[in-house]
Amino acid sequence: MSKQTRKFWVGGSSAMLLGLSLASTAQAEAIDPITEVNSVAQLAVEQPAPSLGMEQVTSVSQLTDVRPTDWAFQALQSLVERYGCIVGYPDRTYRGNRAMTRYEFAAGLNACMDKIQELIAAATADLVKKEDLLTLQRLQEEFAAELTALRGRVDALDVRTATLEKQQFSTTTKLSGEVVMAVVGVATGDNAAGDSVPRNPFLGTRTRLNFDTSFTGEDLLRTRLQAIGFTDLSNETLTPEGTLRFSSGFLGSESNSVGIDALLYQFPLGEKTTVIIEANAGAADDFTDTINPFLDGDGGTGALTNFGTRNSIYYLLDGTGLGVRHAFNDKLELSAGYLASEAADPSPGAGLFNGPYGAIAQLTFKPTEAIALGLTYVHAYNNDFTANGATGSNRANLRSFLASELSGVEADVPVSSNAYGLSASWQINPKIVLNGSVGYTTTRTLASLNGLVPRGDLSIWNWSVGLAFPDLGKTGSVAGLIVGMEPKVTRIKGPLEDAIGEDEDTSLHIEAFYQYQLSDNIAITPGVIWLTAPDHNNDNKDLVIGTLRATFTF
User: Fold this and answer.
1) What distance in Å separates the CA atoms of residue 404 and residue 409, rounded to the nearest whole number?
2) pTM of the prediction?
3) How would you classify residue 525: left for phi > 0, otherwise alpha for psi between -120 and 50, otherwise beta?
4) How would you class 175 by CB atoms within 10 Å of its CB: exposed for 0-12, middle for 13-18, buried for 19 or more?
5) Which end of the chain has less Cβ packing within 10 Å, N or C?
6) Side-chain half-sphere of 157: how many Cα atoms within 13 Å?
7) pLDDT tens digits, residue range 291-319?
């Protein structure tokens, strides 16, 4: 091959050239085949890799930047019709004037050779002219080194890919984490016993690591490790009211021991149903919409307290069990679940069905993107509002109250509760969201323990109204204001009334916070919780709690 000919090959266009050489015979009477191939390769031929997304060109008219007046039009048309060696880019262009490397040319040459071999194998050898075969042979010899190099590179990539697949940690698991650090202090107020609460600020932490694994791309296996380094403030206030959400957990103390806080597997059942298997520390919000956007951040973001995070009746269940979500359409969803608090205990009065448990069903209606409504029913056995959090007065948490007031008989007093809730959310505009909820719970003692515990039925109410201001001051930031009444015993029927009495007064829970997003991974949240008449008792001075929460996510 002459130096002039080699010049054309080195400066040629792109990988399709292969077939271009074949087209030279279409104009053999006027132009030498080799000269034609080189000229077309330099100015008009290009074959992108098949992965670029366009199918084989069946007509030159499919290429929007090739005109009948182009000097190589006839050559391209011949290649398409006789050998099918031309493809274009996804935008249906050919880009025939673009320069290419010898490797690109070699790849295109190899593709055309494979095409001609297919024609020969299909007994259509009469379509392949002798001159074309000679031209291809000369091209193959000229680019033998490049073709060999390409094959070697592909083989090396296959080896590296196989090695990576064997050595990588997992193709399906993602790690995410959250660290909450908070300074908490009481500014003023009394505890439930009427004594002044110590004014000692303290620092606590909560650390979570989530390992999220998917086996099909649609399912989720979540394993969460958690460590809590908090002493619950209720140890000093002597009431579940005002309990901080980020201090609640499977340990609930300053131990900082690491344990599995959540272990669940979620998978679709058809197009509209999702099943959630809770193996450890499950909660209602794992499979139920709590209808409290921007405020329900489970302690890491949003509201600071259990009460501000979601309707108190959701805390009546936790543990091991099953949850299901079924979307009838884009506007209506049904969620249901069953969780047992002592599922791993085989002793009498425990296990999946004989121990404490909670069952929930909720109908969620979203008529528009801005409005959501939830109708909730919860049935619980031997659980109160401290099952997955801590809210309300001491009397409202009957099991815990009886343990402290009646010589520690909590474990022997069977209690049954039925709760009904209504929640609503309205995004008035992109900057203002109004949330509200109300809950009514009836709790009954099921045995008297030979007269030690009087029988009775409790009526318990709670309500809240919240405002969220997303993106206030900075994108990702949010301010919140929550006003409500934590669970309060409003009525008791039966002999139990004389034994424990009702909550005669009303305590208001007022909470305000501003979560400032310093960066995508760091948020600082100052906040204050004001409890009037702690434990629904006007004899106790108002309690004011200040917090400064820092949340780090990765």
Assistant:
1) 8
2) 0.70
3) beta
4) exposed
5) C
6) 6
7) 999 999 999 999 999 999 999 999 999 99
